[in-house]
Amino acid sequence: MKDENCFTTVEQMEADSAKLYELSKASGAQTWEDRNKNQTPHCKFGEEGVCCRICSMGPCRITPKAPRGICGADADAIAGRNYLRMVAGGCSAHSDHGREICHTLYAAKADGYYKVTDTVKLINLAKEWDIETEGRDIYDIAHDVALCGLNEYGKPFGTQKFLKRATEERQKTWEEQGISPRAVDREITTAMHMTHMGNTADAEALVRQSLRTGMADGWGGSMMGTEFTDILFGTPSVRETEGGLGVIEEDMVNIIVHGHDPAMSEMIVQASEHKDLLDLARSYGAKGINIAGLCCTANEVAMRHGVKMAGNFLQQENAILTGCVELIAVDVQCIFPALGPLSECFHTKFITTSEIARIPGAIHIKMEKENALEQGRQIVKMAVENFANRDKNKIFIPKTKEKAVVGYSCESILKQLDTVTNSHLDERNTYKPLIDCVTSGVLRGAVAIVGCNNPKVRPDYSHIEIMKKLIKNDIIIVASGCSAQAAAKAGLLSKEAKNLCGAGLKRVCELADIPPVLHMGSCVDISRMMLLATGIAKDWGVDITKVPVVGCAPEWMSEKAVSIANYVVSTGIDTYLGIEPQVKGSAKMMQLITQGTREITGAGYIINKDPHELVQAMIDGIEAKRAALGI
Ligand code: SF4
Ligand code: MSK
């Protein structure tokens, strides 16, 4: 059984990256490390959120000597507008992804490439949305559900249907505070309109719209993205895989899938199992076809097929630098434009597949729902035929990889909890066993750790340090996105990681047969975490703000993360950030996001760039919630 010294450390990961970086120079490659040097120090006005370029009288920058822009907007207005625009950008990305999945479900047919896999989930959702199910063909139901979902993006009246899943207390708070989101597109448009020149200059109003726009993401677009993906490709179930650059195989054709929307990667995974393509790979001297993932596409296919995870956000270039990636196929979001020129330094073919993400230097194969599998085959064939073009002098695959258990959807968690309560039938399909562990003190609480990497902090270090300290303190973790992959690389998604836990969490891991860090999926799957927290609050019978559960994004970088943080706070969950939101130039905005939202939603941000201080603040926050509950 592995002990503390046997898991891959951040130092080992850094040594791998350093070696790859060094070798990259011989290939004429440039990586984020080079560009980061060129970009630092960053512009102070941008970093503090007090540069406005919303109209062409500007850009206006706020200084003590020039406290207002030409139109009279002050630092609070400018930082607030920039912040809301980040939320709108993030909400639009998640929600357009969710909408695309709705369209994929709408196009699903019994003899098509996209089919309904989880019929139970489909029928449950149809019933939730008052769509007739009795005696109807499953695809007729699917089309009605998809249409109903699509309507959530642009309906003229009413609020998001999924809000009804929340606790009554949350629904009441959202309604009273005026942050229940209407149609997804409406909230994004309102955010853009409010921040147009000559509109809202009041920071609090901008923060309120940030909360509502974030809600349109988490309880709208993202939640639909998750539900519809499960219906199409199956609700994730527990399965084993591996994580780390060592999953790239020297003697196989390696294809990397990267991005977020699994419609493309699902077809590539299917095609890679076709006998004729495997035979073709063998005919080129390869032992087979190895698919590995990056970023959230990795999470999607790992949870449903056990596909291995090559790495997270700041490792996307490293994968190509191994010299053994025949092809990298991307869909949407978090894809470095640098992959175009970088792949040209190697034999790697770089394929874009979405009109949303067109990148110079890529071969563009627009995925069409009617031809999706043929296109998946075309991509796999291209990779196989490229195997012979490897340059043997450019090969270096780090050996580091760890075992990982993935696929903890809410359904999987409930199922796992049932295994420990088989004698208490009244406690089946509930979170009560988990709640009992928390109230008895065996577990102190739970943390949802999410988000990206960011060169502003030591990549992966914050994720891994924070997770290790939490599990040592008997705090269970749910993780998604690139945070989950950081955990995978460090072995924290393996069952052996129980040896890094405090006695209470170790016992829970043994009884429930789970790792201490539960992989819940991709960025849109943070909606699963909202439903998990909601389920716990309902089963416990306390307000969600009182449950000893907090959220954490130690290394976040994207607009999507700002949107997520807004819906997590709106859901009543304190959110600990390791990167400062770019509003520091406004004391009022800093007050609003850390304290002001507590008056509106009962939760706010705690910000600290030092991971050790941040994790201690989390532990203190969880203990304070326990004390308030009298446990
Ligand atoms: Fe300057 Fe106002 Fe225009 Fe912004 S909106 S660029 S602060 S004049
Ligand atoms: S992929 S949004 S870098 S978590 Fe979802 Fe990772 Fe952040 Fe993209």
Task: Write up this protein.
- With 631 residues, the chain is an alpha/beta fold.
- It folds into three domains: 47-233, Up-down Bundle (Substrate Binding Domain Of Dnak, Chain:A, Domain 2); 245-394, Rossmann fold (3-Layer(aba) Sandwich); 406-629, 3-Layer(aba) Sandwich (Rossmann fold).
- The chain is 49% helix and 11% strand.
- It has helices spanning 10-26, 32-39, 44-48, 75-107, 119-128, 138-154, 168-177, 184-194, 203-233, 262-272, 275-283, 295-305, 316-321, 339-344, 372-386, 410-419, 432-440, 461-472, 481-489, 503-512, 526-540, 559-570, 587-601, 611-629, and strands at residues 51-52, 60-61, 239-243, 253-259, 289-294, 308-311, 327-330, 349-352, 363-364, 402-406, 445-449, 475-480, 517-521, 549-553, 575-577, 605-607.
- Strands 6-5-4-7-8-9 form a six-stranded parallel beta sheet. Strands 13-12-11-14-15-16 form a six-stranded parallel beta sheet, sandwiched between helices.
- Strand 1 and strand 2 form a beta hairpin.
- Helix 5 (119-128) packs across helix 9 (203-233), helix 9 packs across helix 23 (587-601) and helix 10 (262-272) crosses helix 15 (372-386).
- It starts with 9 loop residues before the first helix and ends with a helix.
- The chain binds iron/sulfur cluster and Broken Fe4S4 cluster.
- Iron/sulfur cluster (SF4) is lined by residues 52-55, 57-60, 69-71, 73, 78, 197.
What topology emerges from the helices and strands here?
Blueprint: H1 10-26, H2 32-39, H3 44-48, E1 51-52, E2 60-61, H4 75-107, H5 119-128, H6 138-154, H7 168-177, H8 184-194, H9 203-233, E3 239-243, E4 253-259, H10 262-272, H11 275-283, E5 289-294, H12 295-305, E6 308-311, H13 316-321, E7 327-330, H14 339-344, E8 349-352, E9 363-364, H15 372-386, E10 402-406, H16 410-419, H17 432-440, E11 445-449, H18 461-472, E12 475-480, H19 481-489, H20 503-512, E13 517-521, H21 526-540, E14 549-553, H22 559-570, E15 575-577, H23 587-601, E16 605-607, H24 611-629
Parallel strand pairs: 4-5, 4-7, 5-6, 7-8, 8-9, 11-12, 11-14, 12-13, 14-15, 15-16
Antiparallel strand pairs: 1-2, 3-10
Helix pairs in contact: 4-6, 4-8, 4-9, 4-22, 5-6, 5-9, 6-9, 8-9, 9-21, 9-22, 9-23, 10-12, 10-15, 18-24
